[in-house]
Design a protein that fits this description.
Blueprint lengths: L21 E2 L5 E2 L1 H14 L3 H4 L13 H15 L16 H13 L5
Antiparallel strand pairs: 1-2
Helix pairs in contact: 1-3, 1-4
Amino acid sequence: MRVPPAPPRREGPSAGPGGERSTGPAGESEGPVAAAARRILREVAGTEEVLRDPDLALYGSGLLDSLATVGLMAALAEELGIEVSPAEFDAAAWATPRRFVADVCARSAGGPRP
């Protein structure tokens, strides 16, 4: 009996464990930083809704407030080594789950933020 060949592994900074990519809520590929950012946001917000609706208004809906924002900053620093000071915090950059993840990924990559 012949065993089919394994699919090719994806390599690089956006590849997940084992070289595979995980999938975000809209079906897009995402790397480990994006997956960690989504998990952190879910834990701090306390709801799966942030995973289901990437355009959910985080502050307008009351899911995040100033205390939760500090919690996000602390978790990003502890788990991903991404430091966000209150002085450089921009609420518009974290207004939705999609924008939060994009900002975290940009900070992780050291490039310009969205």
